[in-house]
Design brief:
Order of helices and strands: EHEHEHEEHEHEHHEHEHHEHH
Oligomer: single chain
Helix content: 25-40%
Number of helices: 12
Strand content: 15-25%
Distance between the termini: 25 Å
Length: 366
């Protein structure tokens, strides 16, 4: 994201113990069936991920005890950087499973052939709209919505209704209020640009950004600066004296503001403009050339288990993709349901992403 989970920052860092276990072998080579290796099977399975992966230690330990595998997590920067490293090491991967490629980068990963097809156990329980690869090279794990967030206090004080749609953001009453992330350097920035492509199409999205620029949109490099420095509604933004009451963030940001508020507020101080959203879906895949393919398969299965899916919202602040996974009360009480997010087909993104980003940069930044 990827970065739905950057919202919680260091407070969500998980301590994952790594222990390598060795299988015991015995007998002479002549007693072994033809083609059987003398090398013991690895009991460590390595998950390569972006920096935002987290899981409750108890949930992970339960998987390790039941499967017999020990999980090693190799965090590798943001989603784009982590994917680049796997493409460069194609065929000799750094791990067994990769987690964190989303629908904005999916076609790039698939075109580079870094995954081995595997139909995960339990895939039938995943909502079908998230199964974007019919060859099962990747398995959907979570979803989240990139949306404009607003500072409730600002709009109440000014007696102005907060914007609800992309169309609203170009209106005069919202001039000089919105801060967005750079589409060339930021996952939420790219997602918000794609929301405009989904809404206005190839013919209209550039005209929309021309209007946004004329209405005083501010562009910063990344989410951290936008949300925790420039946005007036977040805890970090208040401390930094941010003066922009509109920011591109996530639909899960309000529950985070409640969870980490000091003191914890009864109501989220921020709201979500639900007509501005782009739906992200994140996937996991078995890496081609994995040293522990069986362990990798077990780990992918685990990631769409009900146990992992229900643990995920408060660890990574994303939504489950499994039909019967329940959301925690924090999400149901303070979050929002985005009924009609904008979407762009992964193959369309793959064909146009680079030229769209170049056009956006020339139009908005330069």
């Amino acid at each position: 994201m990827s970065t739905t989970r950057k919202i919680a920052g260091a407070a969500l860092a998980a301590a994952l113990g790594v222990t390598t276990l060795s299988a015991c072998g015995g007998g002479d080579a002549k007693d072994k069936p033809a083609g059987t290796s003398d090398a013991p099977k690895s009991k460590t399975v390595t998950l390569v991920s972006h920096d935002s992966f987290n899981v409750t230690e108890a949930v992970l330990k339960e998987f390790e005890q039941q499967s017999g595998y020990t999980v090693k997590v190799l965090k590798s920067g943001d989603a784009g950087a982590a994917l680049n490293q796997e493409i460069l090491t194609k065929g000799s991967p750094r791990g067994d499973v990769f987690f964190g490629v989303d629908n904005t980068l999916l076609s790039r990963a698939l075109d580079n052939g870094i995954f081995t097809p595997y139909e995960a156990k339990g895939l039938g329980g995943v909502k079908p709209e998230y199964v974007l690869d019919k060859e099962h090279r990747v398995t959907p794990v979570d979803s989240g919505d990139i949306c404009v967030n607003y500072d409730k206090a600002y709009f109440a004080d000014k007696k102005i209704a907060p914007p609800q749609t992309l169309d609203d953001l170009v209106k005069p009453e919202y001039k000089n209020l919105l801060v967005v992330e750079n589409a060339a350097t930021s996952s939420p920035g790219l997602g918000f640009m794609l929301a405009s492509v989904g809404k206005y199409g190839e013919e209209g999205w550039k005209d929309y950004w021309t209007k946004l620029k004329a209405n005083g949109v501010e562009v910063v490099d990344g989410w951290e600066q936008a949300y925790n420095e420039r946005f007036s509604g977040s805890a970090g933004g208040k401390k930094a004296k941010g003066d922009r009451p509109l920011v591109v963030s996530y639909a899960s940001s309000p529950p985070v503001e409640v969870l980490y508020g000091e003191p914890q507020p009864a109501e989220a101080p921020t709201g979500v403009s639900t007509g501005t959203c782009f739906r992200q879906v994140e996937f996991a895949g078995l890496l081609k050339g994995a040293k522990n393919e069986e362990g990798g398969k077990a780990l992918v299965d685990f990631m769409i288990s009900k146990k992992f899916q229900e643990d995920m919202p408060l660890q990574m602040f994303v939504n489950p993709v499994v039909k019967d996974a329940a959301l925690p009360e924090l999400f149901t009480q303070h979050g929002v349901v985005v009924e009609k997010p904008e979407n762009v087909a992964p193959e369309t993104i793959a064909e146009n992403r680079e030229q769209w980003v170049k056009a956006w940069t020339a139009l908005v930044v330069k």
